[in-house]
Amino acid sequence: MLDGQVAIVTGGGSGIGRATALELAGHGATVVICGRRQEPLDETGALEPHGRIAGITCDIREEDQVDALVDEVLARHGRINILVNNAGGQFLSPAEDITPKGFRTVVRLNLEGTWLMTHAVATKAFIPSGNGGRVVSVTLTPHTGLAGMAHSSAARAGVENLMKVLAIEWARFGIKLSAVAPGVVATETFMTKYPAAFRDHYTESVLAGELVTPEQVAQTIAFVVSPAGRAISGSVINVDHGHDVSQVRYPPREIATERGSIEQEARRT
Ligand SMILES: CCCCC/C=C/C(=O)SCCNC(=O)CCNC(=O)[C@H](O)C(C)(C)COP(=O)(O)OP(=O)(O)OC[C@H]1O[C@@H](n2cnc3c(N)ncnc32)[C@H](O)[C@@H]1OP(=O)(O)O
Ligand SMILES: NC(=O)C1=CN([C@@H]2O[C@H](COP(=O)(O)OP(=O)(O)OC[C@H]3O[C@@H](n4cnc5c(N)ncnc54)[C@H](OP(=O)(O)O)[C@@H]3O)[C@@H](O)[C@H]2O)C=CC1
């Protein structure tokens, strides 16, 4: 499906980024992954049997490192067809405790880093090639606002709108941009680094009774960048078992009947 395509996946050393790199490589793409540390990148590369994944260290917040990464990929492969902006993250905190530096840190990583990568790949590769390209940025649901993550919710809303406006401006270059918004994903970071009470609450109470897997997010991204996804641009695609419409199981325990449903209203004559 992706034979001959060259992709960059940021944050490819772990979690969703690793699953995405493996998925794209499994469909024939040559994939360059980046992150701040070399070791996890090498671990991802070692999981791919055909040598299609290579890691280059890059901090997406640093303009010079982003430029150097894109230049290196072009020097090695001569083209870039796909960019997956996956690197990101935040710390859980009540909004009133987020310091200006903390807010800036999260916005800089998730929004500015995504902008730097997208702008560099578009101006150095997609536009000069005349062939356009595909960009998918990983954001998050619920879009109604995620309590405890004011900084990240704001940054991801910015990323989703950025994808939309660039989908308009860069349609003339054949560049398609979208966001894929996962719900709660059972990655190692989420399962081991987030506070146990937060993790357990979501694991037990999500609408579908199960968390999203990194592979499910990766398969959706692969579909969007595949020939079958050619008409997708300016979209936000949730991969969240319905987390965007409800963050709790239905029906709530307090009003559930013995059949696990809600009471039917008596007919009035
Ligand atoms: C219901 C839906 C759930 C959705 C759940 C989503 C889960 C995920 O997204 S999991 C996968 C993402 N991965 C991560 O979130 C990685 C873990 N997070 C981090 O590495 C950091 O939080 C980071 C994203 C902010 C990056 O850190 P870094 O750039 O290395 O920055 P510093 O650690 O130096 O911190 C700078 C600055 O930020 C403030 N700060 C950082 N951590 C905290 C904290 N735990 N509590 C409060 N404030 C924090 C703080 O201002 C730091 O400055 P200093 O105080 O001077 O250190
Ligand atoms: N897990 C979840 O429930 C959800 C996750 N998401 C989002 O999906 C994305 C991936 O999440 P997940 O796989 O769980 O998280 P991980 O923590 O496993 O992955 C984050 C990756 O990003 C890399 N990274 C972090 N900062 C930078 C940076 N400045 N420059 C380059 N790379 C960086 C990290 O590598 P290194 O440390 O080596 O730089 C790491 O490989 C994130 O944006 C996350 O917020 C969205 C919804 C839910």
Q: What can you tell me about this protein's structure?
A:
With about 270 residues, the protein is of the alpha/beta class. The chain is about 40% helix and about 15% strand. The chain has one domain: NAD(P)-binding Rossmann-like Domain (Rossmann fold, 3-Layer(aba) Sandwich). It has a seven-stranded parallel sheet, sandwiched between helices. α4 links the parallel β4 and β5. The site of ligand LGGBLMCM has 17 residues, from α4 and α6.
List keywords for this structure.
binds ligand LGGBLMCM; single chain; lipid biosynthesis; alpha/beta; Peroxisomal trans-2-enoyl-CoA reductase; Peroxisomal_t2-enoyl-CoA_red; globular; phosphoprotein; binds NADPH dihydro-nicotinamide-adenine-dinucleotide phosphate; Rossmann fold; SDR_fam; 269 residues; 7-stranded parallel beta sheet
Instruction: Report the β-strand fraction as a percent range.
Output: 5-15%
- Which value, in Å, is the CA radius of gyration? 20 Å
Could you please say which CATH topology applies here? Rossmann fold
Helix content: 40-55%
- The CATH homologous superfamily corresponds to NAD(P)-binding Rossmann-like Domain
Class, according to the CATH hierarchy? Alpha Beta
